[in-house]
Amino acid sequence: MSLPGEESNFLRFYFLNLKVASKAVRVYFDSVHPPGGLAGELSSISTTLKRLRFITKQQLKYIIPKSWNLPPLESAPVTGWDDLPHSSDKSTGADLARFKWYRNKLAHHEDGKLSHTDYNQYWGDLEGAIGRLGGPSMLKESQSAQHVVLDKSLKEMLNMIRNNEKDIQDLHVSQEKHTIMINDLQTTIDNQKTIKEQHENKIQELNDSIQKGESQTQTVTSELSAYKGSIQKCTEEIEHCKKEIDKAELLIKGIQENLMDKQNLIKIIHCYSD
């Protein structure tokens, strides 16, 4: 059973991307970085590859070890790496951006259909890029791909690969979201740790202040106790003085009474003398 034209267009263009375009990129890459010296080149260059958003962390594991980094040799087209370049831009950077843009479009295509107009435009654009990057042999292979027979097994295989790529893409998106969530949670945890340390420092300062206050309280208590002892001693001395005063007053009173008696006696004697 043959597929409707738009579905056939989609699968045929998908086949061009999967089978031919990826091979053309590999041919170009091998011409720039010969496989024999690739490890040395990779180990000698820096961090840009890890900043390219269209390369996943899982892909990086296969491309380079963790200690290697790879900057691009080509400049981005004026439209950037994420948008389809102008048809007049035939630079290598633009062709690489074309591969990326068409691959992403296919990966996010929902209904698996491609109109004849889009099919012809996309095919011509991508076929030209394949020829420029991969050379005449790759151009010929892309032209042959337009006439490939989409039998049942090939259709099933292409659909299976496409579905797997969509699942992988969804997993990458989910992984990025989870990574962001984990980073946000880690930031929150770090902030909470900082707040906890600040509170612990304040509590320690309060404890030190309390201990210092307790020490001062003990000193004051000791001084008060000494004062109480002095006051008690003074009180006892005052009581003793009071008793001595009372004794002295009694003695004075006795002397006064004795003196009064003597004065009276003298008066009596004077009376008898007169």
Structural summary, described in words:
- It is a single chain.
- Helix content is 77%, strand content 0%.
- With 274 residues, the chain is an all-alpha fold.
- Helix 1 runs antiparallel to helix 5 and helix 1 runs antiparallel to helix 7.
- InterPro entries: HEPN_DZIP3.
- This is DZIP3-like HEPN domain-containing protein.
Give a short synopsis of this structure.
77% of the residues lie in helices and 0% in strands. It is an all-alpha fold.
Main sheet characteristics: none
Helical content class: over 70%
Mean pLDDT: 77
Strand content: under 5%
- Report the C-alpha radius of gyration, rounded: 53 Å
What is the terminal-to-terminal distance?
179 Å
Order of helices and strands: HHHHHHHH
Could you give the count of β-strands? Answer: 0
Uncertain residue ranges: 65-71
Instruction: Determine the number of helices (DSSP H or I, runs of at least 4 residues).
Output: 8
